[in-house]
């Protein structure tokens, strides 16, 4: 039986770890929040006292952390503290599903390779609902051999598994996707608000645009206008889903990458500015579709 160490049990990591348990794997977990570990223990996971304790002797390590500095610190350690690369057994596969800067992913991958380990950056798309349902999309960077080893594990948590290229490529593809998503959400919110301001029913307008040239994922799966679509954050006071603060983080990563490659991303830059402003108004922990409120006229 495969033993997986899963480190980072937040809104995404927790459900992902549960799906590994359901797939019959032995799952050892660690999180800085004890309640998160207890919740997983109740579903069959084995709790550990530390990240290194969870990872030691595991066949696979999966991490889901907030930012690049956390991933570098966990894997590489410091003069005062061991990193995962110091304690994992020979042949352990390392998978990081955090959304971080590509340079951090490449740095950890190079350090892992120097010690003989396969490291795959595998950020996800699909949100908390996809994490719970096991239908996530994994966007992977790493060697062909690393991807081949990671795929069976990722298939226990996701429905679409892509190999984008070498180390860091998964992160680049992920931030490209989220930059586009932010632009689509802003544009959809703007268009719906224009229709509402001119007397249109947002449900009727959404149905029209869905099957017309303006059709996009936000209209089909994640309508930002309250009451148009059930079971999405906009119909639950924008609770749940993908937080504005996380979108701001990802858009910051996209603009850092654009500066590095001298890419022109005016729509991405504008979307970041709009989301930063939205977060500053106290919306950071609400779903990113709440950007709709920036265009809504007060009646």
TrEMBL record:
The keyword NAD applies. Keywords: Branched-chain amino acid catabolism, NAD, Oxidoreductase. The active site is at 174. Pathway: Amino-acid degradation; L-valine degradation. Residues 3-165 form the 6-phosphogluconate dehydrogenase NADP-binding domain. GO terms for molecular function: 3-hydroxyisobutyrate dehydrogenase activity; NAD binding; NADP binding. Transmembrane segments: none annotated. It comes from the Bacteria. The gene is Hgd_2. One of its GO terms (biological process) is L-valine catabolic process. It comes from Shewanella algae. This is 3-hydroxyisobutyrate dehydrogenase. Belongs to the HIBADH-related family. SUPFAM superfamilies: 6-phosphogluconate dehydrogenase C-terminal domain-like, NAD(P)-binding Rossmann-fold domains. NCBIfam families: HIBADH (TIGR01692). It catalyses: 3-hydroxy-2-methylpropanoate + NAD(+) = 2-methyl-3-oxopropanoate + NADH + H(+). Its EC number is 1.1.1.31. Residues 168-292 form the 3-hydroxyisobutyrate dehydrogenase-like NAD-binding domain.
